[in-house]
């Protein structure tokens, strides 16, 4: 068997919150967790598995990483270059469709969680 | 709509009467025949069904493929070097198509350039495997059962899972009938469709029969290549070739590109150029730079070989009324990234069909621009490969290229020559992009410096510290 991407060990940080980023990642194998860090505490935002992607905001803006991503067990992840991605959507805008769809689901999920938090506060 | 006269004599020409509707959109129940379930045909089917679903359009896609990709040797093979480029691997991953481990024979993370004056490894800055070595079929002739799967078989399954109906029949003829297209199969049956998509490549009989039918259709220009498989074993491949694709820049007339691609137990050798013949192959196999890549410096007998033809100039135009040609049958990239071109043309054709229509006008407006873009880039590519041939012939130029590349690989600075060679070998970037980068003043300055440094009397073609290999 042969593989694509890069291997990460359990607990290894793939993306660190606050760092500059110029690529997105697609999980080939294993699981990772997205963590938001504030005031010395961290909160798990979501768990991601094979074929899920993260770091997509770096493709559309220049802001730093909004959260950290840590491997949950051994994980294999492939990098998608910003330059390569943008060249792709110049030719074929539908390439961004899946990303927009997932980002929209994530906004919906966060809106629901924020509403729940405000109600229960 | 002006009545159709039938035949292919009007491929790509204006077919509509003044005031008529320019498009022929698909409707619920439209039937589409896709001839050939290689990457172009399967990806077209997959993307069209996805797009049709997104606009609530219910169409039937019949995917004709006589071969079983689970077979080893020629019966299941599509005669190709079998490399999925870095850019295509990323685009597929973005689409949600992650190549499974059992389809990837080996993940490649570097290129090793071999010349008579030495060799240099060009590594990806990320040290990540993003180039996939694959088999289009299920491995070479007489190979043992493998725990791997065919790339074409995987894509065919993807299309099938999405709803394409696989028909294991050989299509022998395509013709126009009133307001539909008729296809004839080898078993004597025939079917009529609203659209026929030709994705049978350039090595099929159908490609030749389309050529005969088309009065004003210019078929793709072809050249012969040579591909063979060596059984070396996993351990020997790990020790001699590693996760690197080996590329040869040798002073052999008519040879444009030669590469040795490691895959599982085997390595695939691919020779591309101007009509590869026995004389050219003899010169290639007697080159010491080639023998050095094999265990013990001895080139074993190959276990499987073929002389497939490749498309070096697009068919023109690659569409007609209710007809479109994709992948190698239509337009592909010169020498490199044929699977990437299959993906791009398949998706552009699927977008045209799903969101516009199936008339010649639809394809001219929405599909032809991509083909023209690839054609224009190929013309630049031809020039770039021409410059490469000059470098192959000039020893002083080879020394300069080797020195500049090796220096870049030893430092953390800009990788101008490495990047140019990487994109040229891998087909990851457009030839125009590669060419423009060679016009950068810093590239030209560095090349001139390295040409002079490498050719001064008593100087090595490599910089002082060498990561691998020896000075020459």
Describe the model.
The complex is a heterodimer of chains A (121) and B (472). Chain A is of the alpha+beta class and 121 residues long. Chain A has one domain (6-120): Jelly Rolls (Sandwich). In chain A, 31% of the residues lie in helices and 38% in strands. Chain A has three helices and six strands; from the N terminus they run βββββαβαα. Chain A has helices at 57-60, 82-91, 97-120, and strands at residues 6-8, 13-15, 23-38, 41-48, 53-54, 68-81. In chain A, strands 1, 2, 3, 4, 5 and 6 form a six-stranded antiparallel β-sheet that branches. In chain A, a hairpin with a 2-residue loop joins strand 3 (23-38) and strand 4 (41-48). The longest helix of chain A has 24 residues, at 97-120. Chain A is globular. The mean pLDDT of chain A is 90. With 472 residues, chain B is α+β, with helices and mostly antiparallel strands. Among the domains of chain B are: 31-76 and 151-221 and 314-377, FAD/NAD(P)-binding domain (3-Layer(bba) Sandwich), CATH 3.50.50.60; 226-307; 391-455, no CATH class. Chain B contains 14 helices and 21 strands. Chain B has helices at 39-54, 86-95, 151-162, 205-213, 234-240, 278-285, 288-291, 338-355, 360-366, 368-393, 395-410, 416-426, 431-437, 441-455, and strands spanning 31-35, 60-64, 83-84, 106-108, 110-115, 118-123, 131-133, 165-167, 171-177, 180-185, 190-193, 195-198, 221-224, 226-231, 244-248, 255-263, 266-273, 304-306, 309-313, 319-320, 323-325. A seven-stranded mixed β-sheet of chain B has the order 6-5-15-16-17-14-18. Chain B has a six-stranded mixed β-sheet with strand order 8-2-1-12-21-20, covered by helices on one side. A three-stranded antiparallel β-sheet of chain B has the order 3-7-4. In chain B, helix 10 (368-393) packs across helix 11 (395-410) and helix 10 crosses helix 13. Chain B starts with 30 loop residues before the first strand and ends in a 17-residue tail after the last helix. The relative contact order of chain B is 0.16. Chains A and B meet through strand 3, strand 6 and helix 2 of A and helix 2 and helix 8 of B.
């Amino acid at each position: 068997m042969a593989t694509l991407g890069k291997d990460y060990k359990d607990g290894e940080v793939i993306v660190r919150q606050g760092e500059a980023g110029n690529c997105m990642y697609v999980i080939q194998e294993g699981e990772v967790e997205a963590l938001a860090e504030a005031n010395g505490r961290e909160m798990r935002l979501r768990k991601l598995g094979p074929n899920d992607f993260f770091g997509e905001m770096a493709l559309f803006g220049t802001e730093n990483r909004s959260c950290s991503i840590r491997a949950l067990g051994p994980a294999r992840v492939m990098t998608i270059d910003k330059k390569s991605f943008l060249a792709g959507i110049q030719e074929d805008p539908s390439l961004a469709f899946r990303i927009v769809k997932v980002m929209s689901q994530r906004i919906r999920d966060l809106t629901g969680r924020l509403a729940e938090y405000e109600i229960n506060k | 709509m002006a009545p159709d006269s039938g035949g292919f004599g009007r491929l790509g020409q204006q077919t509509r009467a003044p005031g008529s509707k320019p498009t022929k959109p698909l409707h619920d129940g439209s039937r589409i025949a896709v001839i050939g379930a290689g990457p172009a045909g399967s990806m077209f089917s997959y993307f069209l069904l996805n797009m049709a679903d997104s606009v609530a359009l219910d169409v039937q896609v019949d995917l004709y493929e006589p071969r079983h990709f689970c077979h080893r040797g020629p019966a299941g093979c599509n005669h190709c070097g079998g490399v999925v480029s870095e850019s295509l691997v990323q685009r597929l991953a973005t689409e949600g198509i992650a190549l499974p481990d059992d389809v990837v024979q080996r993940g490649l993370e570097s290129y090793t350039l071999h010349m008579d004056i030495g060799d240099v490894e060009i590594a990806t800055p990320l040290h990540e495997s993003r180039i996939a070595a694959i088999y289009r079929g299920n491995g070479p002739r007489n190979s043992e059962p493998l725990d791997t799967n065919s790339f074409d078989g995987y894509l065919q399954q993807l299309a099938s899972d999405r709803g394409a109906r696989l028909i294991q029949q050989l299509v022998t003829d395509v013709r126009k009938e009133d307001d539909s297209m008729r296809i004839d199969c080898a078993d004597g049956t025939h079917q009529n469709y609203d659209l026929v998509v030709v994705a049978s490549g350039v090595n099929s009989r159908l490609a030749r029969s389309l050529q005969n039918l088309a009065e004003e259709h210019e078929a793709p220009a072809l050249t012969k290549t040579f591909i063979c498989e060596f059984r070396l074993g996993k351990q020997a491949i790990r020790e001699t070739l590693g996760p690197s694709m080996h590329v040869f820049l040798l002073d052999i007339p008519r040879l444009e590109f030669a590469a040795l691609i490691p895959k599982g137990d085997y390595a695939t050798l691919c020779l591309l150029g101007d009509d590869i013949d026995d004389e050219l192959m003899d010169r290639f196999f007697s080159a010491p730079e080639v023998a050095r890549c094999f265990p013990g410096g001895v080139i074993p007998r190959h276990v499987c070989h073929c002389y497939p033809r490749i498309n070096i100039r697009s068919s023109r135009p690659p569409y007609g009324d209710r007809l479109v040609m994709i992948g190698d049958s239509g337009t592909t990239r010169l020498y490199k990234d044929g699977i990437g071109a299959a993906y791009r043309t398949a998706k552009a054709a699927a977008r045209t069909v799903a969101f516009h229509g199936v008339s010649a006008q639809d394809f001219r407006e929405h599909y032809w621009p991509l083909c023209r873009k690839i054609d224009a880039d190929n013309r630049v590519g031809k020039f770039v490969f021409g410059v490469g041939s000059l470098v192959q012939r000039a020893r002083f130029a080879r020394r300069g290229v080797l020195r500049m590349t090796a220096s870049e690989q030893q430092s953390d600075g800009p990788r101008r020559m490495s990047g140019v060679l990487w994109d040229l070998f891998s087909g990851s970037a457009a030839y125009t992009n590669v060419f423009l980068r060679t016009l950068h003043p810093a590239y030209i300055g560095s090349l001139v410096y390295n040409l002079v440094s490498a050719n001064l009397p008593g100087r090595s073609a490599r910089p002082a510290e060498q990561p691998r290999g020896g000075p020459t």
